[in-house]
Amino acid sequence: MPTFFSSSVQQRLFDFALSLAAAARLFTAEQLARHADLSGYRDPTKRAREFLARFPDTFETLRSPAAVPARRRLTAAARRRYGITTRPVSGVSKRADHWLGIGDIWLELTFYGGRPTEWRTEPDGQFDIYCEWQGRPLLIEYQRTPIAARQWRKKWERRLNWYRQQTWSRRPTVILIDTTGQCDETLSLPRGTVHVRRIEDLHHALMPPRL
């Protein structure tokens, strides 16, 4: 490990990278570079790459499309070591950008209110994320690409039918992070849904209003 990483910093970064990789299935050095222990460097992404290169048995660099940051994930050995059973994602998957966005959501919540205490992706194939954050259960749907109004209505019907079939000790807040730019009439939002247009607006929407 380069001398600019103390043992305590190394452990913090390792734990953080491991949590990010487990939460999002895919991640980049650019995402890891947002960590406070790296962001102060002149080139935090370079430092993040150097850090990850020291753990080839835990983090692997994947074949990725040209002109995009290299996509990374946990190795098969690491997945076995840490008991991670979610399906791995290819670096050239059509949904790779979706999973990187899931990582951005995890980062947004983590940086602005602490790591979620529970985190599940695609529970029962419904919604993109179930998590508990600051003691609050959340169901998050993340939509990057435009779809027709009829598809939105069918999507919400499936999600809400599943929601009503569950036994909740506390009813989760339903959140749509929609970066498509489509109008609200097209989205057919169910009543009570928290709607944000950018991932970086998520924590603002969830924070209690200041008095």
Architecture overview:
By secondary structure, this protein is of the alpha/beta class. The chain has 2 domains: 1-88, Orthogonal Bundle (Arc Repressor Mutant, subunit A); 116-211, no CATH class. 41% of the residues lie in helices and 15% in strands. The chain has a 5-stranded mixed β-sheet with strand order 3-4-5-6-7. β6, α8 and β7 form a beta-alpha-beta unit. α1 crosses α6 (96-113).
What secondary-structure arrangement, pairings included, does this model have?
Blueprint: H1 7-24, H2 29-32, H3 36-39, H4 44-53, E1 59-61, E2 72-74, H5 76-81, H6 96-113, E3 118-121, E4 129-133, E5 136-143, H7 149-165, E6 173-178, H8 184-187, E7 194-196, H9 202-206
Parallel strand pairs: 5-6, 6-7
Antiparallel strand pairs: 1-2, 3-4, 4-5
Gap between N and C termini: 47 Å
Q: Structural class, from secondary structure content?
A: alpha/beta
Largest sheet: 5 strands, mixed
Instruction: Calculate the mean pLDDT score and round it.
Output: 93
Uncertain ranges: none
Rg from C-alpha positions?
A: 18 Å
- What percent of the residues sit in helical stretches (DSSP H or I)? 40-55%
Trace the largest sheet across and list its strands. 3-4-5-6-7
Tertiary shape: globular
User: Helical stretch count?
Assistant: 9
List keywords for this structure.
211 residues; alpha/beta; Arc Repressor Mutant, subunit A; 2 domains; five-stranded mixed sheet; 9 helices; globular
Summed up:
This protein has 211 residues and is an alpha/beta fold.
